[in-house]
Amino acid sequence: MPSPRHPTRTVFIAAFAFSLAAPAAASPPALPASPAPPVPLVPPDTLAQRVAPCVACHQPQGRNDAFFPRIAGKPEGYLYNQLLNFRDGRRQYPMMTYMVGHLPEPYLREIAQFFASQHPPHRSSATGPARVEATAQMLERGRVLVRQGDAARGIPACIACHGQALAGVAPAIPGLVGLPRDYINAQFGAWKNKVRRAQAPDCMADVASRLTGADVAAVSAWLASQGVDDAARPAAAPAAPLPLRCGGVPDHGGAR
Ligand code: HEC
Ligand code: HEC
């Protein structure tokens, strides 16, 4: 399944994009001559204000749809890797590439740190997990794949990398609870179609290639039906070496 696109939702944001310029490049716009006394044209310049355009799409609590992932509270290295992935064309979303394509790496790192340190409650922690249309059998299949994998088919358990609590593992593996089902399905579609990639070796592309469409549907149903714990934080390190090597996670290279 190709990753969904909502071009009309993105147009409005182009007007904001310039406010993101790295601080050194910011300069007040030239104004026509005016008799008024000089007024402070540059608003107080904090990182939180400069990333306001990001928050317009990535609402702090997250939305429950396929398109705009929550970024608050995801591990810093993961967020940073994604900014590089958009910049370098390994992930495709034109507005993202436009927004981060010209920013220097230290500034991308700062933006990643900023969002990683935000922990607003998830929207679903008030409403409960989304109602998921799936049979009990399908949910069970999803649970088994996530927690145990399927050794006979070479599918590692998701928890081997994403952590026992599925809350992610520092520095660069994201959590899997709290993600909308449609978003998970769309990302697997993107890996299978090679429009989402990570730094090589791309372990998620490898995992995705081993899952059938029915496996993905079962896994996304089970994950989306899990309650999210707002107090959960990414684990400090994997409990054991990762079952596959992941280019974005160089310190925990793991087995081959
Ligand atoms: C016009 C809407 C829009 C704006 C503005 C926007 N993004 Fe995004 N961003 C998206 C969409 C849509 C995706 C998911 C694309 C996909 O499915 O691959 C995304 C993905 C991401 C991801 C990957 C998330 C994940 O969980 O894998 C990160 C990180 C991110 N954006 C950061 C930012 C930052 C930082 C800014 C501000 C500099 C920003 N975005 C501005 C729409 C936007
Ligand atoms: C060998 C380690 C490994 C295994 C096993 C693994 N993952 Fe991942 N996963 C990763 C890494 C690393 C990333 C970050 C990839 C990147 O930087 O784009 C990731 C990213 C993801 C994302 C993207 C989240 C987002 O916010 O966009 C999803 C969804 C995901 N994995 C689902 C799964 C599921 C479901 C399974 C089990 C079927 C699984 N993963 C098994 C390492 C793994």
Produce the secondary structure layout:
Elements: H1 7-11, H2 47-50, H3 52-57, H4 76-87, H5 94-100, H6 105-116, H7 123-127, H8 136-147, H9 159-162, H10 181-192, H11 203-210, H12 213-224
Helix pairs in contact: 4-5, 4-6, 8-12, 10-11, 10-12
Describe it for me?
The protein is built from twelve helices and no strands. With 256 residues, it is mainly α. It has one domain: Orthogonal Bundle (Cytochrome Bc1 Complex, Chain D, domain 2). The structure holds heme C (HEC) (2 copies).
Outline of this structure?
The protein is mainly alpha-helical and 256 residues long. It is built from 12 helices and no strands.
Structural class computed from helices and strand pairing: mainly alpha
Each distinct ligand? heme C
What is the third-level CATH name, the topology?
Cytochrome Bc1 Complex, Chain D, domain 2
Largest sheet: none
Domain module tally: 1
Q: State the total count of DSSP E strands.
A: 0
CATH superfamily label? Cytochrome c-like domain
Query: How helix-rich are the residues, as a percent range?
Result: 25-40%
The level-1 CATH class? Mainly Alpha
Tell me the overall shape. Answer: globular
Uncertain stretches of 5 or more adjacent residues: 1-18, 25-29
Distance between the termini: 28 Å
The CATH architecture comes to Orthogonal Bundle
Count of individual helical segments: 12
Could you spell the SSE succession in H and E letters?
Answer: HHHHHHHHHHHH
| Average predicted local confidence, pLDDT | 85
DSSP strand content? under 5%
Cα radius of gyration in angstroms: 20 Å
